[in-house]
Amino acid sequence: MPMLFPFLFFVVVATATGYVPSAGGRNCNGDCSTTASGLPPSSALASCGWGWELGQKLYVPDYGAVICGDRFGTRAACERIGIGLYAVDLFFTTEAEALQWGRKKTVLYVIQ
Known about the structure:
Blueprint: E1 8-19, E2 45-48, E3 57-60, E4 64-71, H1 75-81, E5 88-91, H2 95-101, E6 103-111
Parallel strand pairs: 1-5, 2-4
Antiparallel strand pairs: 1-6, 2-5, 3-4, 3-6
């Protein structure tokens, strides 16, 4: 991990999935222009499970630093379909990039 983050709080192993917002609503309920934080989707924001607070800073190896700025959906829906509390979705600009990242277990460095 680069020394950009001297205040490492703890480490979590969780699932990180690549995604591309889709205008048809498949990934963002019909409105892909803003996230739960009110900001537009970007590589600086991650969509995070309900175990993370909005605004939590994370470092994802091979991706970079992100801030939890969006949610997957309701907590009950996530629990029903088995999305982990600490999972993250990482934004990519193209579907090819998101598919190349795929879904993988990775270490998430939690930054204080």
